[in-house]
Amino acid sequence: xQNGKEINNLTAKDQTAKGSEDLAKLFNYPSVGELFSExxxxxxxxxxxxxxxxxxxxxxxxxYGNRDEADRAxxxxxxxxxxxxFLQTLQQMRLKSEE
Length: 99
What we know:
Blueprint: H1 2-8, H2 12-26, H3 32-36, H4 42-64, H5 67-98
């Protein structure tokens, strides 16, 4: 996995200096500001769709993977669910403020 290798090659100092913005770029994650900066919801919808696809794949790992894989996938699924809930809450707040 190329992204994992790139992160592992960074020293602790480099990782701190790079910050989360660079990790977001490395993994091609948009920032929350980017998701809500446009009037249309295309980027947000695309990102949520990717998260849902990832959740579905992880749920398969939970069902069919070995115990260690299933445990890690379960935690990852929960993280994705929390992220989706957070984004949905932000979207609802945005819609209310536009009314």
